[in-house]
TrEMBL record:
Protein name: Metallophosphoesterase
Highest rank taxon of the organism: Bacteria
Gene3D superfamilies named among the record's database cross-references: 3.60.21.10
InterPro entries in alphabetical order: Calcineurin-like_PHP, Metallo-depent_PP-like, PAP14/16/28/29
GO function terms (MF aspect): hydrolase activity, acting on ester bonds
Ranges of residues in domain Calcineurin-like phosphoesterase: 12-244
Amino acid sequence: MSRLRFNEDGTFKIVQFTDIHWQNGEPADWRSLALMKEIAANEKPDLVVFTGDVIHSELTADPKAAFADAVSVVTGEGGVPWAFVFGNHDAEEGVSRNELMELARKLPGCMAEQGPVDVHGVGNYRLSVHRSAAPEEVGASLYLFDSGSYAPQEIGGSAWIHRSQIDWYVRESSRLKAGNRGNVVRSLAFFHIPLPEFNEVWDFRACCGHNFEGVGCPKINSGLFHAFWERGDVKGVFVGHDHVNDYWGTLHGIRLCYGKATGYNGYGSEGLPRGARIIRLHEDERPFDTWLRLDNGQVVYEQPVHIPAIQDLILQSNKRLRS
């Protein structure tokens, strides 16, 4: 597999597909594949990242075949490099995470890795995007985490990123900084289940997009966001899990972004199209760009602005003071 590398124009484009929920080749599955093919053809990504629930294993007769079908948008002729992380439905029944990772690693273009055996989960790994004119140098880094499935029964809700995963990230981040003349390497992070901070950014910051179901985050905050902030390298976090949320907002300098649910076999909301989130990295110091491409052909560069109630009260109070 060739290295990921910035293009000559200094850009690197990622398409994020999420929550495909492929089952048994029903019409909804092939509709999902057709949408992914259309988006890939229009966006021409340098990398595709699937952020979990590629398949719905509990409802799938042959999970391995389903997984191969779901990612065939990137494994067929003219495919592009791709990576993935596990969601809570990928390996609940009939297949294990290890088995799916072993399968994926044999498919064309796959850049996913098993990850260190002493780190919690399967598929914690890092990808480097090398500089265009200096291919030996890392221009950007992508961290991919296994965010698990469910919390212990006595706690309930979603799983969380474990301490061993956070420690692994800190080691990788420190190693990259040391190899980059003491400068942090700008990075993005991808996983399935949103962090508790996705609630905070929606409740207390101006955001762009929709929140139609609340945030399915863990009840335990294990500190990954704090590690990102402390290290200063991760500038964007991309998740899935909540199909009818597609918002993003910035919290303490880090953009927290939902993807756009892609699959037609998962639940949705009437009037809310499926699609994908697109991310464009720049080799220089500019922030990354992100937009949505939808199944109705629309490209959304500016999502509707959400002002939290508390912020709205402050704005109204300031207006009254000025009047």
